[in-house]
Amino acid sequence: METSKGNNKWTDVEIQASVDAYLDMLQREQAGQKINKALENRVLREGPLAGRNAGAIEYRMQNISAVLDQMGRRRIMGYKPAAHAGANVERIIRDRLDAIDDKQLEDLEPTADDETLERRATKLEKHPIESPPQGVEKPQQSESTGKTYFRDPVVRAWVRQQAKGICEGCAQPAPFLVGGKPFLEVHHVKHLAQQGSDRTSNAVALCPNCHRRCHHSADKDEFTASLYNKVDRLIRED
Predict the structure, then answer these.
(1) Of 83, 48, 53, whose CA–CA distance to 65 is shortest?
(2) Which H/E stretch holds residue 121?
(3) Cα separation of 67 and 50, whole Å?
(4) Domain extents for the chain?
(5) Of the listed ranges 54-58, 145-149, 205-209, 218-222, the one predicted with least confidence
(6) 3-class SS at 187?
(7) CB distance 163 to 153 below 8 Å
(8) For residue range 117-168, what is the model confidence (pLDDT) as tens digits?
(9) What is the pLDDT of residues 69-123, one digit of tens each?
(10) Which of 60, 84, 154, 186 has its CA 20 to 30 A from that of 121?
(11) Which regions of the chain does DSSP assign to beta strands (E)?
(12) Across the chain, what does the average pLDDT equal?
């Protein structure tokens, strides 16, 4: 069964986007984070799989589970394997999975350790990230410290790539280089401690001065509010 949009077969790009989203969910599940399948499905329908219905996307995720089972690899427990997607679809799924080895998958895992997060994000930044990552709707606190949260390195890498070395707060170039790259810090506009998400719609790349301004200045609330007007992707969170 190869679910289609009207009479159109799934494109390679759509299948690859499905695999990427699946692997993103898998890594968060492996990190002990809860996954809202309905929300992830909706995000895909509003993005790279616009025009596909919820059932078609659910079935495609089940196809991916089936291929992972065949490959003897981990899968998301909530997606029961559904085989017989069609030889061409299975080939594209397998090729996409083969393109991401276990070491790369580890680099995608959310982490509460800032040094590990930065190392993974820096590595990911070396290659273009074609579409906005899913991120984490409700980041979980680390049980070891109770003060840090599991954050997605792909979100950090993508946000900095989008900034292209320019602070999204003051529109000035990053003040210095680190390892040959402009230094910008990724800030969650609604703080994680305030139950903000770790998604690209809640994250900006700021110079150290603007970052501190968001946290400590007398006009921090006004400056934070101004970011929503400056950065189109930002969405206010309740």
Answers:
(1) 83
(2) helix 114-125
(3) 24
(4) 12-101, 110-230
(5) 145-149
(6) strand
(7) no
(8) 999 999 888 877 877 888 888 898 887 656 789 999 999 999 999 999 999 9
(9) 998 888 898 999 998 888 999 999 998 888 776 556 677 778 888 999 999 999 8
(10) 60
(11) 177-178, 181-182, 185-188, 203-206
(12) 88
Given a cut of 60, is residue 39 above it in pLDDT? yes
For residues 51 and 101, what is the distance between their CA atoms, to the nearest angstrom?
30
Total residue length of the chain: 238
* Residue 182: φ, ψ to 5°: -60, 135
CA 2, chain centre distance (Å):
27
The residue among 235, 122, 232 whose CA lies nearest residue 181 is: 122
Mean pLDDT of 160-178: 96
| Interatomic CA distance for residues 162 and 170, integer angstroms | 15
Tokens of 14: 């759509």
Quote the tokens at residue 111.
Answer: 């982490």
CA dist., res. 52 & res. 225, Å (int): 35
Joined tokens for residue 128: 């273009």
Contact in structure between 227 and 189 (CB atoms under 8 Å): yes
Which secondary structure element, helix H or strand E, spans residue 2, and what is its range? none
pTM for the predicted model, two decimal places = 0.61
Relative orientation angle of helices 87-98 and 54-70, to the nearest 10 degrees: 70
If 0-12 CB within 10 Å is exposed, 13-18 middle and 19+ buried, where does residue 72 land? exposed
- Bridge partners of 111, per DSSP, are 151
